[in-house]
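Before surveying the methods themselves, we first show a specimen of the format, giving the amino acid sequence and backbone structure tokens:

:::
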Amino acid sequence: MSCSVGEDGQLVFRDESGALVDEHLVELAKKQHKDGLLGLIQSKCDDINAEVESVATVHLETPNCNQVPRFEMPAFDVPAPTMPAALKLGLLDKLFKKRRLRAEENHRQKVDAFNADTQKWQEKREKFHQAAGVRREFIEKHIYVDTTAMEQWLEEVLADIGWPRETEVAFEVLDGGATVMLDVDLPEVEGMPNKVATVPSRGLKLSVKGMSATKVQKLYMEHVHAVIFRLIGEVFAALPIATTVIASGYSQRHSGATGRLQDEYLLSVVVPREVWSHNDFDHLDQIEVTESLARFELRRTMSKTGVFKAIEPFRSPPPH
């Protein structure tokens, strides 16, 4: 018998064939395995609420831009070949020449194989350290002077981010690395989680409630700003010589004029490193990202409930 939590929060019991279990067996299982079932319900509750939390708190993983990228030497974890044990001749080997010669030949073959394997291992280790040296130079030197290296490194960094919703980022490194432009394809509001859960004090079930449209819209507002905030921080942390990040986020929405689905920019911001570096990266949970981005040159038309109107993004650093 297996048990799962359905979309309505009720426990669902099935037998090995996948068929629903008789009610009297369900009641018996609930009595005998109450603690385990409560744990299952709590786990499902945590999963539902964690999904809501994850989209609003993407910015909490923003790296500190005041710490430069550092190369960390990886471990060479290929074990060295094991030397064969010394040859030991038994009594019969000593008495009979053919046995002795055969034993000596077998041992010689093991030693030869060991020497060949050791040479291959040493060559592999040398290549490993050579590759590590190239990587060290790439991170500690090239990303400071070579825009191609900067682009490669930034692409690696951004590819490692695990977004809770599909998010695509295009970027361009300009002015020898001083300026980085980000173009962010944001998820749609329809892709936001829209349910929250609680575990009632009585009964073996989960209470799942839908979020109001206003709450979903506010959640989307938080997510959009958190994504842009995180990306700005990732760029400054990855590229120490970058002094300005221009980040613009857009989403696919139906045009009020034509009804057609089209890209519309929701916000665009120009962020200088000098100001960005004043963020307290040890207390990112204290930052209101919707307000934080307003410190910079920001184009955004948004209601208090998070409804965006289309804007024209920055295409280059504004003049000062």
